[in-house]
Amino acid sequence: MVWWIPGFPLIAFAITLLVGRRLAEPVVAGIAVMATLISFVLSTILLLHPGTPGAVTQLDWLTVGQTHIGFGMQTSHLNALMAFVVSLVSTLVLLYSRGYMAGDERFSVYYQYLNLFVFSMLGLVLSANLLELYIFWEMVGLCSYLLVGFWFFKPEAALAAKKSFIVTRIGDTGLFAGIVLLWLASGSFNFDAVFQAAQSPGFGLGWLSGSGLITLVAILVFLGAVGKSAQFPLHVWLPDAMEGPTPVSALIHAATMVAAGVYLVARMFPLFALSHAALTTVAWIGGVTALLAALIALTQRDIKRVIAYSTVSQLGYMMMALGAGAYAYGVFHLFTHAFFKALLFLTAGSVIHALGGEQDLFKMGGLAGKLPITRWTFLAAALALAGIFPLSGFWSKDAILTALLAGGHGILYAVGLITAFCTAFYIFRLYFLAFAGTPRDEALYAHAHEGGWVMTVPQVVLGVLAVMAGWWNTPIGGHPIERYLLGDAGTSFFAGTSAGDIGHVYPENVLWMVISLVVALAGIGLAAWMYGARADQRAAAAASAAGPLYRVSLRKFYLDEIYESSVVRAGKWLARIADGLDRFVIQSIVYLASRMTYAAGWGLRLLQTGQVQTYGVVAALGLFVLIAIAMLRGGVM
Amino acid sequence: MGLVAWSVAIPLLAGLVTIFLPSRACGVARALSLVSSLLTVVLAICVWVLSAAQPAGFHAQSSLPWFTLPNLWQGTDLAVHLSFGVDALSLPIWSLAILISAVAAWAAATADDWRERGKLRFLWLDLGSAGVIGVFAATDLFTLLVAVELTLVSAFFLVHLFSRGAARGAALQLLIYRGLASVFLITAIVGMAYGLAGGFGDATVAAQSGAVLTFDIPKLLSQHVDASVFPAVARSWLFLLLLLGVFMEEALVPLHSWYPAVTAGAERWVNLWLGGIVTKTGAYLLLRFGAGLLPDQVQHWGALLGWLGVINILYGAFAAWGASGWRRLVTFSSISHMGLFLLGVASATTAGAQGAMFLIISSGLLTALLFFLAGGVEARVGTERFDKLGGLSSSLPLLSGFLLTGALGALGLPLTSGFISEIQAFMGSFRTYPGLSFVALLGLILSAVYLLYAMERTTFGRPGPALEATQGAADLTGAEWVPVLILTAMVLLVGVWPSVLGHWFNPAAGALLRIGG
Amino acid sequence: MGGTGAIQIPTGSILALGAILFCIGLYGALTKRNLIMVLVSIELMLNAANVNLVAFSRLGVSPNLNGQIFSLFTITVAAAEIAVGLALLLAVFRVRKTTEVRDLDLHRR
């Protein structure tokens, strides 16, 4: 059965690839949504009956040397949960796209790419070994590239697509090296074999062994996650990727693909757990990312970019949780975040759709009356993101903050709190600018209208989930998700681990809960004060008061400029040097060689006088010399 | 005669018949060429199916006594045969030669201007195909020599006749480089045969062990000779000589300059044929004779090979990034791939060797596909330069789509042949040379950079200045579908189901490095 | 064969004659400017060889007729050679209006 979970989207992809151009829009969308819906039903069954965690069904794929590499599907609690989230959000986004992309010239191509993406993403979370995971890892990257560049005629989209692929490729190369080194050290790509080898005392290669190797490999693997999950310093691609259609941003760049990095670290958690240095790296990278992205999000003007930086920031949160050893909390936050962040993008898409493509926040305003469903669902998602009791984000975020403080990461806890404050502020800044107050652009406002049912139904479903998904892990229910996820411990999925190894859990602390709630409310209050009904002057005053700090945030800490002027420029210079070297130096050497041959011939030509008698003299002299030699040596040669 | 021998004989016969055709009858020449290509493809499929059960050893062998040379040194006659056959190493590459030659024949026959110098076009393509197929099919050194020279001469004439601009000089460069290369290669290989028979060592020990001078390749491969018969110094020099020949034949940095010079001007089917298979002969000879006869030297010179490999990867990648047009980019991308091939061989591991073999096939397919598609762009838009292209996706969506597929294969995206080749090469090289391998990984990033840069400039964005002329141009034509579909299907087949090659290359890699891991 | 009662000329003298003849011929062939003179000098060299052949056929280690027969052949061939040579010379003269050896350096150009 598990094969069919990615199987149906693959079939849908094949159909749309072969005959999609000739089918009508509703048929194309219908096929895609139905296939994904079946996958969702199957995933739900899998979630409820996951069987033995770590069970694998696979085919022989390739033999390299003595190593047999398989290609198959592995089930476990973690994988089932991921498949559930991915297929659920995919179904809703595919339905929503029917309305958002209606009338696009390449409608069927869009669905073709999305089907391929859903297939790859489901394959990724069900992969049976590291090599297969890497294959799907790159496939989702390809889909992201294609979809970001979907409107290829826009130069910004073309550049953003290229940037997203290349920047994630840098991280992927680290993952590639990590996988190869793990194979060399353990002789297998299978997760259980890798984990068991890493725990054995003889783990090593000739030049590095033991904990040093584990740390190196874990950091290389994490590099892949840094690229895919847009962590500092490779986060720069994600905001640019907003050039793609908004449903794509919701699905790929918020809920699923960018969470793949978090999934990767969770999947490899037994390896990370063996290296304190690797875990610390994960936690700090996560912390820096969370704070940095939240600070940038404070000042952005583009509605999608604000949410994109919010995604980067929340992914940093998840990494912090994993780095602090709270495996279950990191995955739990991934779970809740997928719903409210996808919803934020879908509502933003609804706004953009209503305003005919306008994305500038300062041209919006007063949309609450025109777009009631969008307004209320957005509010639900915003409250969840800000972490307001009792919405989903509250539970997962608070669990992470608790784990940080209880786990002895005081500084990271402070980082988390500041981030939480910023998060509440920027998302409500967005809310007040877009929905509250009076319209700033009457022409746009006049045409604004809610999308059809295909667009509102997914919003409502996700809105319900954004409110309720967190209730699945409250103390009242006895933390079912924690127990579910930790059920993987000790099985062949997480070979050789116990529940304590793979994740710390902490009881709720009411005082800390109140603190984080107060911080979030303070952020919302500040946003209301600065951007509420009668407050435009306050925001401008604050911006000018902050001066350079405001500009640093607005210009995204100048990271793009720094990369452009260092790495990119150096690469271009090297390319130009190589090209010049080849065209001029090496070609000249070849030319020189041919010229020298020519010159030698020209020189030797001087000896050839053309005078028969001169030749005769030389021949005669040569003969005499030979005779003389023969006579002196007393014989012929 | 065995099936493999026929695969050489059929195009050779087609070529010989074409010689005697009048120049007007280029239609007959075209038909002959196409039919002979089709027949060889059928032969390849037959051999593939018949031999699949037992991949190891030589298949479909046949041998005709040709003449004898007096072996003054050992007093016996040295029989020279016209003999052919394929084993697990050569069978897939031989099939690639047949496939690429057939595709090139199709592309040459369906080009708009195929009547122009029609007789010479098919004559030299037939003879060249016979030559290059023969290189991989030969099981006798003398036969190999003849095949190498036939390939060289045909390639020279094809480039000379079917190039624009200054490329005639480039044909001469090709002739000089590859001519010298075959001198070095043949000297080195015959030297190895001589050395295995005890020519550089103790002749009496050699005589006791029964080593005799032979030109028979399977016999050579099965000879185990110790150091007193074949001293290490002689092995080293012969290996280096072979390597020099391989570098010139393969167009590896720094002896590559003929390759970009030729591809800058040749017609697209010539480029397809050259880049797809003719440049792969050196790689095959390095595996067959370098690693097959002197595995210890691969280990001994491993560091040198590894360094040269990394230099090729990075130099090729940067030069491709700096390229101003598709022809140059594909050329240097192919050089960069073959750098990774060297690194895989240098590792002297079965995984590395297997990756190197995969790379020959993968690079051949992708280079051929990209040259063909880039030629298609050039034929429609009138330029292949990035600064004049742009926005092709809107008017030529299919061509752009396949170009993207080819580029993604070349940058090593999983489920294309590029990825599976690269990871195997790295699985080998990380064991032996981890430091070098980390540097080589930069090539993976750079390949994404330059290929996506080219794609962005070609198919994405606003229509470039050269696109106005293309408004009336058709997307992929019926005749163009054939090469594009075949090559793309092969790239994807190898990527999705690599066992199709692994079935052969796994035992071949195991047999190749009789020592080492 | 050998006559009786005749004065025996020492072998060395005959060989010396041959050597002198040959050197004169060589000198002439290498220095004379006129093509006719060169041809004549070549004849001298050939005849020097003939003298040696005849001398050895009479006075060699194993005297026999071979030497004399060989010299007859040489004379015949030399005659033919002169005929061809003069014909060539005439042809050259017609084209180039000269028989000077120095001017015949077509290979150089």
- Proportion in β-strands of chain A: under 5%
Radius of gyration of chain B: 22 Å
Sheet having the most strands of chain A = 2 strands, antiparallel
By secondary-structure content and strand pairing, the structural class of chain B works out as: mainly alpha
Helix-strand makeup class of chain A? mainly alpha
The quaternary state of the protein chains shown equals heterotrimer
Write down the secondary-structure element order of chain B. HHEEHHHHHHHHHHHHHHHHHHHH
Determine the mean pLDDT of chain B: 89
In short:
The complex is a heterotrimer of chains A (637), B (517) and C (109). With 517 residues, chain B is mostly helical.
Provide a descriptive summary of the structure in words.
- The complex is a heterotrimer of chains A (637), B (517) and C (109).
- Chain A has 637 residues and is an all-alpha fold.
- Chain A has helices spanning 4-19, 25-48, 77-100, 107-125, 130-148, 155-186, 191-199, 210-228, 237-240, 246-255, 260-267, 269-273, 276-297, 303-323, 327-354, 372-386, 392-406, 410-435, 442-447, 453-468, 480-486, 499-502, 510-531, 536-546, 548-554, 559-605, 612-633, and strands at residues 55-64, 67-75.
- Chain A has a two-stranded antiparallel ribbon.
- In chain A, helix 15 (327-354) runs antiparallel to helix 17 (392-406), helix 15 runs antiparallel to helix 20 (453-468) and helix 18 packs parallel to helix 23 (510-531).
- The longest helix of chain A is centred in the last third of the chain and has 47 residues, at 559-605.
- Chain B has 517 residues and is mainly alpha-helical.
- Chain B has a domain at 301-503.
- In chain B, 70% of the residues lie in helices and 4% in strands.
- Chain B has helices spanning 3-19, 26-51, 90-110, 118-137, 141-161, 167-196, 203-208, 217-221, 232-250, 258-263, 268-276, 281-293, 295-300, 302-321, 326-346, 350-381, 392-395, 397-410, 417-432, 434-458, 478-496, 499-512; strands at 59-70, 77-86.
- Chain C has 109 residues and is mainly alpha-helical.
- Chain C is elongated.
- The model of chain C has no long low-confidence stretch (mean pLDDT 86).
- Chains A and B meet through strand 1, helix 5, helix 6 and helix 26 of A and helix 14, helix 16, helix 19, helix 20 and helix 22 of B.
